[in-house]
Design a protein that fits this description.
The chain has one domain. The chain is built from seven helices and no strands. The longest helix has about 35 residues.
């Protein structure tokens, strides 16, 4: 392994561990499931910006698997696994597309993941049957959350690139 590959792998491992720990700690506070999953996704953002290639996928999958194995309450892990963990990778790939097309893909991916998450909660966690009307209301509310999350993530990415990157001194490490 080359020197830079070892550094990249070490940073990816550290980021995955931090994301998993954030999810696990947040799992003890059930009302913070979405919040901790969104915060943990910042580790994937750093991997996308600094490491590129296969490493963001490694961070995402490792954090998701570790948190699923080690979490007593898995809802935060499921949110991270089903959408919030891989969204920074998707967002980076969509930057090159037309804005309207990018938003169509983002909403399609998000809503598909929301429906998948609902079925996972229903089958794995045993959530009771919910009426179709309530599912539509939850999807609409989730889409509002998603737009807010996307804009917040864009702002955090800009903050990281402009300020935090210099503080962490990761820019010239690889």
């Amino acid at each position: 392994m080359k020197k830079f590959e070892i550094r990249k792998f070490a940073l990816a491992s550290l980021l995955a561990s931090v994301a998993a720990v954030i999810i696990i700690i947040g799992g003890f506070f059930e009302i913070l499931d979405l919040t901790v999953s969104a915060i943990a996704s910042f580790a994937v953002v750093i991997a996308v910006i600094e490491l590129k290639g296969k490493y963001p996928y490694f961070v995402y999958l490792t954090a998701a698997i570790l948190s699923m194995i080690l979490m007593p309450m898995r809802s935060a892990s499921i949110y991270f696994l089903c959408f919030l963990g891989f969204y920074p990778i998707l967002k980076a790939a969509l930057v090159k597309l037309n804005r309207i097309l990018a938003w169509v893909v983002k909403f399609s991916a998000f809503n598909t993941c929301c429906i998948a998450t609902f079925f996972i909660f229903k089958s794995v966690l045993g959530v009771a049957d919910i009426s179709e009307k309530w599912i539509v209301v939850m999807l609409l509310a989730s889409n509002v959350f998603f737009v807010a999350y996307d804009y917040a993530l864009s702002g955090i990415i800009a903050l990281y690139i402009v300020k935090l990157r210099k503080i962490l001194k990761l820019k010239n490490l690889f």
